[in-house]
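name: query_chain
kind: protein
chains: 1
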Amino acid sequence: MGCCRVILFLVLIIFGVEGQIQLCQNTDNLACKCETLAGLIDISSLGKKDGIQYKSMEATVYPSSYKFSYNPCYPFNDLKCTSAASCQEGDTDSFNLGTQASAKWSMCDEDPNKNCISYTAKQDNVDRTTIVVLTCNPSGETTFSVDGEFPGSNPPQYIYRLTSKCACPNGCGGGGGSGSGGLSTGSILCITFSVLVVVYLAGGIAFNFTRRGASGKEAIPNVELWMDFPALVKDGTVFFINLFRRGGGGYSTME
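structure:
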């Protein structure tokens, strides 16, 4: 029974990944693209090659006198912000909040099922980071908003939110990810696992009924294990999330 518990616990951890098959698998941290188990996320169509897509936006969650600009994928120059992805603008000054070259995809801290892109830059001996939270919306329009500077973050962190079908695997661009043209790896794993569970239960019930004379719930193989299933699901989920969570103050992403 102990062995069965360990196996099922590990299976639950593995299939926790299925709920996160849209998470980035990049090793080279491309500014525009992210390879996932479900396909390619390509946000290149959301940026401007010769300008700024989202210019002088106001912070809506943590208001300030500053305005914020963001351009996905392509660098821009504006005041003191050079080769920038994100810029903070005041009446008399401006600050580079992250360069395109520093773009890094990772799991979002606030929601492990979402991807985040972080950008960093150093100006006046101060490191600043912009974190863009991506939300997949297959059928809706693209929206962008600025939360503002995350309270108490040191060094300063700035939170943006970008919702688009382009944040979905194969939603925009080439869509040439590993999941195109058929079932994703995660879907295949789920189907295979479901079939194995059905065969296991059916075969176990038949064996217990015909060979052991068991009936009712006693005919179910390892019935005690299945009664503990909800608790194991919870344990597996908590374990998986904590595995990727990292400490530290302020808003952070999980790599």
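note: Residues 165 and 171 are 5 Å apart (CA to CA).
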